[in-house]
């Protein structure tokens, strides 16, 4: 490709809207442009990368025996009503009506549509297992689209769905997908970890996420230094402490803590560490007959964070997790949020495992501006239930008992689920078992965030000059920069010849024939992350050389002009 025939859309200035490196560089390198919040056009440079990633995904999916299909983005609401998700999915699901007032939605995921296909097309158990996949745009009306294509509203996903008669077959396909995902992300040059994951609104009971390690990641993963244990922090179990409570001291007493709203403020006022203060939150429980919610107190050690995913898994807690309002709290306890505590609380009390081991602690008095000190469980709070409710922290013991946990930030680039029969049961997607009885198919589903994974690659592979593409997904493998070809016939001829030779050898090459200042051309090729850059100038040519630079390391060398093709070919990854 000649730059004169290509659309180079590089930007000199840093776009203001970009908060992370990948977003900044995708805009600056001319890969993407936003047309509405979270909705992007892929320009030619970006599209070349996207096509490569799509090819890798497709090749690896096909290797597993999965069959490619194309499902529509527009989906009838009726299917979603059958599965029960039309009401449940919330505002991320973009719902609309056609001119005849039929209800539709834009697919955020395709379990319903694919289950409908399977129930109509699969006539016999002998046709199973079956795995169908597509690479297709999804729409999710994300509450906070951000970081460019990392969290877009319209984005490209590879989604696959498998159908089985038995769990063993599901387990095999799950493993095949897991292995295929590992190959996809390895081929893309990502450093990633598969981690145990929550199943969220998709459902199911067993799941792994593939997390690309990067500081810009929105997820936190916990991994053990003594075993293979790795999990999304949403799932990572915090073990109960091994120590016992200390003996109770004197009876509790009330202390004025005017103006203290947070645990830290209360700890300071009381002259203790925040670890000695109980954090008490009030959340919504089940809805009562009067339409109001029951109020449930959650107690954590003062310096611990509530884990919402763990909380909503407890029976009787509203999903999604909702904090009680100031008004509800005032009405129920008579106090402000900063002065809450379990002593005398009239509702259900859920206590985290570590908070359960606290003794002689401080907590709010359920009286605005007052705390209690020397409070003890059982003696002062007779009724409470103990659960794992907090986020694990750096240094916690690994839940498998082996090693210590550490935390890293991750970008979720894929997720695999064992779904079970959630959709097949609701939508009557059945096959006959050996006794002739109709039984629901057992399902798995598997997603890769194709566009997000590209942003993740950039987060891991860039420097202050731009993107550093792994060769496997670079928009071009080689860039040829000709210095002032209009002024030097030999430069022009050499560049043209090398360009043609590389094309003939099947190498994806971009030939910068713009006749711009060398610095401008070089900056663009580096920004666009082209792995191998050769510069052809008259001075070096007079010595029989052209200049070669490896983008990844910045190493430069002079290579023989007469032998340039072979030398460059030898530098390309096989
Ligand atoms: P997240 O927790 O980040 O919102 P998710 O768990 O809801 O994602 P899945 O339903 O598992 O997403 O979708 C499969 C894959 O699609 C994800 O692993 C992710 O890589 C990608 N993905 C999900 N939401 C987005 C988005 N808003 N923008 C870009 N990619 C996304
Ligand atoms: Mg997910």
UniProtKB/TrEMBL annotation:
- Write down the superkingdom of origin: Bacteria
What are the EC numbers?
Answer: 6.1.1.15
Kindly state which keywords UniProt assigns to this record, in alphabetical order: Aminoacyl-tRNA synthetase, ATP-binding, Cytoplasm, Ligase, Nucleotide-binding, Protein biosynthesis
Q: What is its main location?
A: cytoplasm
Give the protein's recorded name: Proline--tRNA ligase
Tell me if ATP-binding is a UniProt keyword of this record: yes
Query: Ranges for the Aminoacyl-transfer RNA synthetases class-II family profile domain?
Result: 33-470
Q: One short Pfam family name for this protein?
A: HGTP_anticodon
Q: Which family does it belong to?
A: Belongs to the class-II aminoacyl-tRNA synthetase family. ProS type 1 subfamily.
Q: Name one GO molecular function term.
A: proline-tRNA ligase activity
PANTHER family from the UniProt entry: MITOCHONDRIAL RIBOSOME PROTEIN L39/PROLYL-TRNA LIGASE FAMILY MEMBER, PROLINE--TRNA LIGASE
Name the gene for this chain.
proS
Its lineage reads: Bacteria, Pseudomonadati, Pseudomonadota, Gammaproteobacteria, Aeromonadales
């Amino acid at each position: 490709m000649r730059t004169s025939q290509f659309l180079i859309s590089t930007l000199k200035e840093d776009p203001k809207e970009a908060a992370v490196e990948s977003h900044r560089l995708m805009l600056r390198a001319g890969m993407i442009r936003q047309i509405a919040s979270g909705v992007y056009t892929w320009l030619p440079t970006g599209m070349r990368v996207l096509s490569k990633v799509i090819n890798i995904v497709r090749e690896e999916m096909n290797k597993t025996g999965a069959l490619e299909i194309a499902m529509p983005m527009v989906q009838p609401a009726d299917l979603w009503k059958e599965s029960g998700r039309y009401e449940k999915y919330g505002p991320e699901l973009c719902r609309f009506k056609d001119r005849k007032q039929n209800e539709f939605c834009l697919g955020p995921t395709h379990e319903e549509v694919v289950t409908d296909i399977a129930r109509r097309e699969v006539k016999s158990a002998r046709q199973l297992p079956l795995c169908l996949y597509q690479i297709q745009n999804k729409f999710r009306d994300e509450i906070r689209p951000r970081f460019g294509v990392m969290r877009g509203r319209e984005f490209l996903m590879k989604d696959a769905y498998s159908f089985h008669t038995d769990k063993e077959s599901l387990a095999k396909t799950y493993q095949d997908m897991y292995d295929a995902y590992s190959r996809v992300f390895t081929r893309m040059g990502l450093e990633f970890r598969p981690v145990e994951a929550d199943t969220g609104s998709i459902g199911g009971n067993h799941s792994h996420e593939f997390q690309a390690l990067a500081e810009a990641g929105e997820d936190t993963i916990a991994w053990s230094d003594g075993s293979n244990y790795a999990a999304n922090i949403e799932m990572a179990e915090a073990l109960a402490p091994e120590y016992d409570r200390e003996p109770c001291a004197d009876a509790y007493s009330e202390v004025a803590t005017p103006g203290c709203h947070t645990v830290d403020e209360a700890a300071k006022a009381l002259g203790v560490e925040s670890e000695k203060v109980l954090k008490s939150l009030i959340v919504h429980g089940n809805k009562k007959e009067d339409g109001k919610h029951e109020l449930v107190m959650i107690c954590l050690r003062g310096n611990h964070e509530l884990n919402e995913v763990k909380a909503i898994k407890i029976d009787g807690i509203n999903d999604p997790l909702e904090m009680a309002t100031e008004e509800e709290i005032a009405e129920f306890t008579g106090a402000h949020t900063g002065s809450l505590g379990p002593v005398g609380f009239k509702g259900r009390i859920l206590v985290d495992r570590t908070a359960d081991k606290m003794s002689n602690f401080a907590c709010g008095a359920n009286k605005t501006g007052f705390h209690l000190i020397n409070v003890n469980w059982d003696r002062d709070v007779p009724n409470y239930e103990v659960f794992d409710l907090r986020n694990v922290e750096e240094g916690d013991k690994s839940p498998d008992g082996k090693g210590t946990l550490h935390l890293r930030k991750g970008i979720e680039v894929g997720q695999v689920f064992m779904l079970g029969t959630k959709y097949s049961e609701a939508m009557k997607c059945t096959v006959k078992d050996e006794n002739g009885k109709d039984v629901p198919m057992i399902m798995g589903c598997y997603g890769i965030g194709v566009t997000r994974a590209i942003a993740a690659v950039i987060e891991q592979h860039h420097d202050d000059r731009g993107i550093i593409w792994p060769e496997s997904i670079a928009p071009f493998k080689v860039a040829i920069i000709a210095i002032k070809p209009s002024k030097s016939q030999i430069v022009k001829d050499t560049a043209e010849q090398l360009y043609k030779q590389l094309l003939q050898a099947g190498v994806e090459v971009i030939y910068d024939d713009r006749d711009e200042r060398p610095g401008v051309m070089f900056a663009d090729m580096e920004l666009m992350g082209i792995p191998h850059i050769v510069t052809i100038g008259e001075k070096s040519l007079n010595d029989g050389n052209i200049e070669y630079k490896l983008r990844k390391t910045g190493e430069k060398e002079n290579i023989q002009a007469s032998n340039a093709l072979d030398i460059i070919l030898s530098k390309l990854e096989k």
